Amino acid sequence: DTAMSSYPNGIQSLNGKVFFTASDGVASSVWTSDGTEAGTLPLAASTAGGSRPFGQGIVSGGVYYYVAVAAAFVQELWRTDGTAAGTFRLTQQSDLRNFDALIPFKGGLFFQADDAAHGVEPWFTDGTVAGTRMIADILPGTSGSFLYAKSSIVAGDYVYFSAQGSGMDRAQPWRTDGTAAGTQSLSAPDGQDSESPQAFTRVGDWVFYASALNDNAFNLWKTNIASGESILVHRFVNVSAPVMMWNVGGTLLFMIDGELWRSDGTGAGTMKVRDVIPVFFCVRPGDTAVGDGVLFWFGYNNFTPELWRSDGTTAGTFRLGTFEGALGDTLEMCVPHPLLYHGGRLYFTGNDDIHRAELWVSDGTIAGTHLLYDLNPGVAPSDPDQFMMAGGTLYFAATGANTGHELWEACIDDCPVRRRASGR
Hints:
Distance between the termini: 11 Å
Number of strands: 36
């Protein structure tokens, strides 16, 4: 039945194998693959106690971490090293909450969790049950301080994140070294506005963030990683705060209300690069990529997806391609359009009226942006996603001519071009 699919997700590389979550039609579990169909097998221990792995998967410190759903839809954080003994649950949420982000940190994971007694707070795990703990109770009580982890980043020995502490009306910037004593607020000096921080981005020795004052103003701040000193870079009025920013060749790039801006960390060096650019319909970090000093992103112009690039200059900011048809038809559903940059090339899902949604590649030029593989020949799309590079091989999920949505590999670096389904 070609309509059946395993829907691989959370694809990661560990110890020469690919780890991912998928369904065999009966239940979901963690699978491992050596790149061959025979070597693609489920890990039985990952379904212990009736838990069902899904979605998120991340590697840190030689361990694959993943999220599973238990009875009553409660989410659990699990770990595996590929063995039965090394596969077990670390913790679970107290309610119907999500693990908003899993961030590799100091050989383990930084994440948010709710244990009912403290509400949602920052947590850390070193991959053991005993080493899975709350870092700090920033806002005592059951309401919790920490509600959105996706904008958090690691810079040096710290994680930078947004949280609301005691006596604070709104969230403020914080950082932690993984200990309660090393968890501190980075509130701006002299009572200046640094509330509701978002889009933490490291550039050199500084971490930048946007402080959303209201719907029509924000402050751009930077914090020194070594000293923790905070400096106001620029105040913006009559515009909305950016939800993402990027380090592109040592320069901060960000988008505000259909304009591309750059900053070198000074007020004078904060300026508009180009106006009237297409922006995101739904914001997802995986829908952008940075490589060799160039930012790539999918924007939407009158509901038509467009692939753009920028090196932070006006001349180096332009459209690489326009993709009509199937991608445009699914736009209102906020379908992810992941981008992966590797070895001077950008891999992504493109679309045209002849091939529909297939695997495309770009070298950063208009002429070098083209279809790479027509995995599902004809007008039927393969809809590739979940791109991950390991050992010169591109792994991804796609729908083939005779299969549902399954795990695929394409040899990219210094090897014959080949395509092969790895799994069901």
